[in-house]
Amino acid sequence: MADLEIRNLHVRIEEREILRGVDLTIDRGEVHALMGPNGSGKSTLANTLLGHPSYEVTEGSIVFKGEDITEAEAHERAKAGLFLAFQYPVAIPGVSVANFLRMAINAKREDPIQVKEFREQLRHAIELLDVDRSFTSRHLNDGFSGGEKKRAEILQMAMLKPDIAILDETDSGLDIDALRTVAEGVDKLHSEQGLGALIITHYQRILHYIKPQFVHIMLDGRIVLEGGVELVERLEREGYDEIRREFGAHV
User: Residue 246 contacts by C-beta under 8 Å, 6 or more apart in sequence?
Assistant: First the structure.
């Protein structure tokens, strides 16, 4: 049994069905890419996996580490070991990066983390990801550049140690340096912590820096093609139009 199993997932928002039978399995330590044009259902899948209340599962299931979490609250999924890196992270003025990290860690624990242990974990994460220590004193995402927001999310992943991270359009609007920050961070956490990742994108460029083992193409709310990096190369040659024609898809 895979760590994360998505089985025949159908999802709607209001009265519109967006996902129409998605099947996907991800194990800890695996790097997957989910690609598709805008409107194909990629972000709907990400939000559904993390329990966004606006998305209604009408059929199918989400099983994580052997437990059915289809109806679980977002905080329960996060506590179990799922992590969502948002396309547009929210700023929290007045809360430092370090204090936010400590609160997030405590939300996953029975007993609050001791100051010494937290400092040691934070120091290790800072060194691993090559982050300036002063960064953790700034208010979370308040006035951050796109690259700094992504650095903050990678730091959260390093501290929270999720089993599987969902990176939803995390490359949107990023310059090359910020892309490298994300890619290097994911690679380091994959190597050191065995992080599993689902990288959701409609661009190929982030996949020049993060090499997925598995690639999935989504159209019209379904995964229509699966393979390895050769699918990324095919998209670079042909774009989505050829795949749409092949499968008779509209989006």
Answer: none
Taking only the tens place, the pLDDT of each residue in 132-152 is 889 999 999 999 888 888 889
- The region that residue 138 occupies, defined by phi over 0 for left and psi between -120 and 50 for alpha, beta otherwise, is beta
Whole-structure pTM value: 0.91
The domain 4-89+163-247 having CATH identifier 3.40.50.300: the answer here is yes
Task: Name residues whose C-beta falls within 8 Å of residue 192's C-beta, 6 or more positions apart in sequence.
Answer: 128
Domain boundaries, the chain: 4-89+163-247
